[in-house]
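Try it yourself: sequence plus tryptophan, in.
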Amino acid sequence: MKKTKIFIFSEKIKMEKIVEEYSKKLEKLGIEHSFVKHPPLKEVADIMRHLGLPLSDGFSTLVMKADDQYVVVIRRDDCRLDYKKIKKILHASNLRIAEEAEFEKMTGLKSGAAHVLIPNFKIFLDKRLFEKEYLLGGCGTFEYSCRYKTTDLQKIPNSQVDSLTQEGGIIASEISQTGTILTGITPSGSGHAHIGNYSGAVEQFIKLQQKAQKAYFFIADLHALTTIQNKEELQRNVESQVLNYLALGIDPEKVIFYRQSDIPTHTELQSILNNVTPLGLIKRCHAYKDKLQKNEDEENINMGLFSYPVLMAADILLYDVDYVPVGDDQKQHIEITRDVADYFNKKFGETFKLPKGHLTKILVGTEGQRKMSKGLGNVINIFEDEAIIKKQVMNCFTDPTRKTATDPGHVEGNPVFMYHDLINDNKEEVKDLKERYQKGTVGDVEVKEKLYAALMKKFQKERARYEELKKNPDKIKKILAEGAAKARSQATKKMMEVREKIGITNKYSSFSY
Ligand code: TRP
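Structure, out:
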C-alpha cells in the first residue's frame, strides 16, 4: 500500500516538472499558454468530453510519413485531413499517419501525449486552427492539456501555415479502418428528398457502405412520433423516405436496411437504458432545450421528445457500432450515447461498444441563412419534376454584395458555390466559374444554369432508379423484410446479453425471442 503511494507521489513530481520545463520553453518563444489538469486520459475525445468542450476546441499533433520523410501536422480535431493537398505541398506520392511506435521513436514522446515543440521536423499548421482564438492541445503528459493562444502557434520554430484539411467534411476522427457503421433517418418530412438530405450523413454513408464490414441504415419511424401524430401522414412519410434513400444509392445487397419499429428491442432497450441515464444529462440536450425555449411550457413537450436521445442510444448500442455518420447537429446525441453506454458498462460489466460520431456539415438552404429543410422552403429537390428543380436553383441566393455581373463576387459562404462543390463532378468547371465570379466576368444566371445541369447529371441514375422502384412496391417490401430479419437477429442477441447482465433472468427463466 505504502509503496504504491510513494510511487504515485514521485511520478507526480516528475510530471509537474515536465510541464514546468515545457512551460518555460513556450514562454521563451512568446507563446501564450496555460495548463488544464485532468485525470490521465489518452484519447482526445475523452479529454474534451471530460472538460465539457467540443472537439473543435482541441487540436492534435500528428506525425506523418510522406514518402520517406517525416513531417508534423497540427490540425483541429474536428477537421479531416486532405491527403491530396498535403501530398501536393510535400511533392510526395505516398502519405500516411505514423504508427504509434514510429511516433514515439521520432518524437521521444508517448503517443497521445504529444506537444507542439518537436525539433528537427518541419511543422505544418492547418489554417483552420486560426478560426479559434484559443485551442487545447497536448503538452507531453496525459494528466495535463495546454491551452494555447492560436496565433502564437506560428512562433513554433520550423513551422508554416497551410490549408491541410478538407473544406466540407468535418469528422470526429480519422477513420483508418471502417468496422460497423449505422445511421438512421427520421421521416419527419414528407415528399421528395432534397440535396440537404443527401449531403452529409447520407452521402458519407453511401461512400462508406462498400468499405464497411457491416452497415445498418434504418428509418427512425418511432422517433418521428414525437412530432407526427397522424396515421396517414406517418405512413406516407415512411413510404416516401424508403423510396428516396434506396434510389439515392443505399445498396440493399450490402446494407441492412430496415424500419426501426420492425425491431421491438429498440424500445425495450430504451426502457432499460432510461434507468442508467441521469436526468440532468437529458435536460441539457438541445432538442429538449430548444423546444422549451420556443414553447416556454413543459406541458407541450412529450416524453417521447424528452427521451429521444435514449431511444437513439438504444438504436446504436444494439448493433456494436463503430461509426455513426450524422450531421453535426446530432453530435450531442452521439456523445450521450457514449455516456449512457459507459454508465451501463461500469454498472453491469462490459456490454456495449462506444461508437464514434462521423460528423458532417449541415448544408445551408437556398436563402443562405439556415439549415436546408423542407419546413423552411429553402430546398433543392432531387426527385421532383425538372421544371420545379430548375426554379429552385434559379431562385437561390448568391452574393448579396454583388449588384451586377461585372462586380467581383464572393465565392465563400455563397450557397450556389457550396452546391457546386457538393454536386458538380466537373471540378475544372467549378474552378473556372469561381475564378470568373471573383473577377466579375460571369453572371449569376450562368453559374446557376451550370448548377442545374450538374444536378441533373449527378442524379440521373438516381432519378431513373426512383421511377423504377416506385413501380415495384413488392421489391421494396422484400428489402425491408429481409433487412428487419437480419437486424432483429443481431438486436435480440444483444438484448439477451443485456437481460442476462441486469438480472432479469434467473433460475426460473425460459424466455427467448
Ligand atoms: N436523430 C437522427 C436525426 O434526426 C435520426 C436517428 C435516430 C439516428 N436514431 C439514430 C441517427 C441513430 C443515427 C443513429 O437525424
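One thing you can check immediately is this: DSSP finds 19 helices and 13 strands in the chain.
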